[in-house]
Amino acid sequence: MSWLSTAASVGMAVGPPLVYADQTFSIVRKRDATGFSRDVCAILLLANITRCFFWLGNHFETALLVQSILMILAQLGLLYICIMYRPKLSPEGTGSSKRPFSFWQWPTYTQYIEFLCGFILCQAIIFLILGRSDLYVNILGFVALGLESTLPIPQLISNYRQRSLYGFRMSTLVGWFGGDAFKTAYFFVQDAPLQFKVCAIFQLSVDVAIVIQRVVYGNSPPMSVIMDEVDELEEALALAEDN
């Protein structure tokens, strides 16, 4: 069954980053990132960067390390596209951000990259100081996997506020639920570190909550999108009358 194990490892490495391909194409096609929480990119980037440092202290399966590297690259690309096509009423666009230092609601892509570089530098310095401590490595693992397990929560909150899953691709939801169910089973079969098992179960439970939201709310456009369309129609009619 070695071929089956190899196939599962390849799936674990490549599958999760590919989940976001259809979401990316949808945003580009509509030229609108409404409905997709950019905080998802933040969680995945910070979690997978931290997981790479966890690997330096605890050499878990290589497929999971490759998955983290591919996910970082995928989320950097998705983040760029989300900023390019962010909604007109985004907090950074209206200057209404209520977060400290407008965290993760900055106007330019460069600011995100600068923050991530600073985050990596801080992680590297701390690891050089405490990297030989088993306690620190174990804590680092729980931080990395715990942070990743909160991945669906921003989307859960966004769906609740909109009372809709508009803009959030069904393929992404299926990928989340199916992928998390697969990786939960994979972690137990491969006897991955405890951090992987506990956090995978939590993440899968949040996926279930989003599936329930999809059934209850549907994916009709929220009021903010409808009002934007009305405003654009009124502007077009006004221009037509002027001409």
From TrEMBL:
<keyword id="KW-0812">Transmembrane</keyword>
<dbReference type="InterPro" id="IPR052241">
    <property type="entry name" value="SLC66/Scramblase_ANY1"/>
</dbReference>
<dbReference type="GO" id="GO:0005768">
    <property type="term" value="C:endosome"/>
</dbReference>
<protein>
    <recommendedName>
        <fullName>PQ-loop repeat-containing protein 1</fullName>
    </recommendedName>
</protein>
<dbReference type="GO" id="GO:0005829">
    <property type="term" value="C:cytosol"/>
</dbReference>
<dbReference type="InterPro" id="IPR006603">
    <property type="entry name" value="PQ-loop_rpt"/>
</dbReference>
<dbReference type="Pfam" id="PF04193">
    <property type="entry name" value="PQ-loop"/>
</dbReference>
<dbReference type="GO" id="GO:0005802">
    <property type="term" value="C:trans-Golgi network"/>
</dbReference>
<keyword id="KW-0472">Membrane</keyword>
<dbReference type="GO" id="GO:0016020">
    <property type="term" value="C:membrane"/>
</dbReference>
<dbReference type="GO" id="GO:0042147">
    <property type="term" value="P:retrograde transport, endosome to Golgi"/>
</dbReference>
<dbReference type="GO" id="GO:0045332">
    <property type="term" value="P:phospholipid translocation"/>
</dbReference>
<feature type="transmembrane region" description="Helical">
    <location>
        <begin position="135"/>
        <end position="153"/>
    </location>
</feature>
<feature type="transmembrane region" description="Helical">
    <location>
        <begin position="64"/>
        <end position="85"/>
    </location>
</feature>
<feature type="transmembrane region" description="Helical">
    <location>
        <begin position="106"/>
        <end position="129"/>
    </location>
</feature>
<keyword id="KW-1133">Transmembrane helix</keyword>
